[in-house]
UniProtKB/TrEMBL annotation, chains A, B:
Annotated keywords: Oxidoreductase
EC nos: 1.1.1.169
Pfam families: ApbA_C
GO cellular component assignments: cytoplasm
The Ketopantoate reductase C-terminal domain, residue ranges: 176-328
UniProt protein name: 2-dehydropantoate 2-reductase
PANTHER family membership: KETOPANTOATE REDUCTASE C-TERMINAL DOMAIN-CONTAINING PROTEIN (PTHR21708:SF43), PROBABLE 2-DEHYDROPANTOATE 2-REDUCTASE (PTHR21708)
InterPro entries assigned: 6-PGluconate_DH-like_C_sf, 6PGD_dom2, KPA_reductase, KPR-Related
Organism: Malassezia cuniculi
Molecular function terms from GO: 2-dehydropantoate 2-reductase activity
Length: 358, 358
């Protein structure tokens, strides 16, 4: 069965491989509608535990290499486009260097993508709950002004965009995906960071009585990330400072707190904007709660690494890293791998059919 | 049965009331020895859930008031000494004002105490595991140089010190317990704070591969607390800056990391100092994991409140508060109480027989 955009979809599943093959996935989306038992065209398996460790420790290119090699064989040498859909910064370089800018290329380009979507995977991975908000941002790595994209890569990306637009997605094609990555990471590190720290869904950190403690920290995290961005050449023309307010308000507007006037409770009739499901948790927290490696490195550590190189202090960010590193190290050790002290780049890149993450 | 110091001990128990009455408590201590099935002289009950909420929401004086009233009745008006054994700062004022410096006093004084002891309560509250390290610090509130203690209070405190010294405790009587509170909170906020954030025992945050992420944050937390202390009149003569290194090294020395020389692993023969059991977790983390209200307010929020009043930035501390406040608020709400935005003072004071906490 095809997706609503007309594409054949191959899903690489881990723990939900069997149920997805049998029953498909039920999509309940405010924006995209209700799709009971939707079946991908193909479901392929990736061995669970091994892959988890692999994701974390191996370069991302190693994960997609076998898929690309078999594709190139089937298509008699025609190179595909790799679309990375993942949070974080500094995630594409290794992929580009080893798969595109090499003597034996396996892809004609790297499209770097971000999805803004609050989804929750339920019922053993067979049901997706989604609200009304969704946006897909994508552009080439390296930025087109530095390296002109290959013509075939341009064609493939436009085709990909057309398919998912037909499927109902709102797509923004950008010449500066790097700036958009920093823009999105503003959410992941701040509201996402406080959810991660407190192990709570967004709704809980927006309770009126905890907002004096959570909201200031969320905003401080955004300011730290902006300072690192500026020190690394992402200037006002690429990422305006007003994004801090945008990202802040986007989530804070979902609290009931602002709308209740204690002096006159009858004024409390305005309802908050509801973009996310009530129990929505950022993917990094879901990973942590399920005992999987998290996207700590691309989201938090890569920014901290840039901060150290450019002398920007990031105390709030550092505290989040201190909060999650021991978990991550313990987990990797339990998987039988020797952990290192290095900042990992790109531990969980999702290429050719990666799961949407927020 | 008396304690080894010769005192009659009344234990107020919650969830472990029945088992402690029946089987007593088994103490396994490196410092204090093995005491199988030790029975307190009396075990009194305090209703579980109610008390938990009460502790958190009510002034501490309300918790001890009934005990004190019945004591005063029995002893024909002779006033007892209240010994508070609890972490944190700014915890005594309410107790002193309502029980001592009042028209109808119920106590002749407030002794403010701190215990440095890494204990773990196991087997449904019937077994205490303890290492080699223990120290009890105590002094009068207000400080004697501000208010001369009552003669009877002096006598009672000396008697109390004699009893627990006979029992094997190492006691330090101090004229400046306030400075010692700040000194101890250096540990609670820093190493304790990182354990709390990461939900890990001390040993896990000292793994060599995570130390680059945890130790800097621990030290930064100490520096923030010192800055708040200085801004609040705790000067070098009362709390030397070298305490930061002392508190830092006390725990960091328990890591194996320092003793392994990668260039020559044969040098790795030195063993780290072992003061705490391997799986030791700070009490605030144990409370959190067991779904009980935590000492967030006396340990963290009271410092943050002082920091705000004196204009000292505390980003690491604020991040910890953001991490735990949502849990605390959710819990209080689930107990059917209306939470407030105020900084609580003294939420879990342990008076007349409180549990040792680190």
């Amino acid at each position: 069965m095809c997706g609503t955009g007309g594409a054949e979809v191959t899903a690489a599943c881990r723990s939900n491989y069997n149920v997805v093959r049998e029953k498909g996935i039920t999509v309940q989306s405010g924006k995209l509608g209700y799709h009971p038992n939707w079946h991908p065209t193909r479901v392929v398996k990736s061995a669970d535990e091994v892959d988890v460790a692999f994701d974390y420790l191996a370069p991302a290119s190693e994960i997609v290499r076998p898929y690309l090699e078999s594709h190139v064989q089937r298509s008699s040498g025609k190179l595909p486009l790799v679309v990375m859909i993942q949070n974080g910064v500094d995630i594409e370089e290794e992929m580009y260097r080893t798969l595109v800018a090499t003597d034996k290329p396996l892809a004609c380009g790297i499209a770097s993508g971000l999805t803004w979507v609050g989804t929750t995977l339920l019922d053993n991975g067979t049901r997706i709950e989604h609200g009304n908000f969704e946006r897909f941002e994508v552009g080439f790595y390296p930025l087109p002004r530095f390296v002109k994209p290959d013509a075939e890569a341009e064609r493939l990306l436009d085709e990909f965009i057309e398919i998912i637009t037909c499927g109902g997605s709102t797509v923004v094609k950008s010449d500066d995906i790097e700036a958009l990555r920093w823009s999105k990471i503003l959410w992941n590190t701040s509201w996402g960071g406080v959810c991660l720290l407190s192990r709570q869904p967004v709704a809980e950190i927006l309770r009126p009585e905890v907002m004096p403690y959570t909201c200031g920290v969320a905003r401080s995290l955004m300011c730290e990330v902006m300072a690192v961005a500026r020190a690394n050449g992402i200037d006002e023309s690429r990422l305006p400072m007003s994004r801090v307010d945008d990202v802040y308000n986007m989530t804070q507007s979902q609290s009931t707190a602002l709308f209740v006037n204690p002096a006159d409770p009858s004024c409390a009739s305005r309802v908050p904007t509801t973009l996310l499901p009530d129990d929505f948790k950022p993917s990094i927290l879901v990973d942590l709660e399920r005992g999987r490696p998290t996207e700590l490195e691309p989201i938090f550590c890569n920014i901290a690494a840039r901060a150290r190189r450019t002398g920007v202090p990031t105390p709030h960010l550092d505290t989040i890293i201190a909060a999650v590193k021991p978990y991550q190290a313990k987990l990797i050790a339990s998987l039988g791998h020797k952990a290192t002290n290095e900042y990992h780049v790109n531990p969980r890149a999702n290429a050719v059919g990666g799961a949407p993450v927020i």
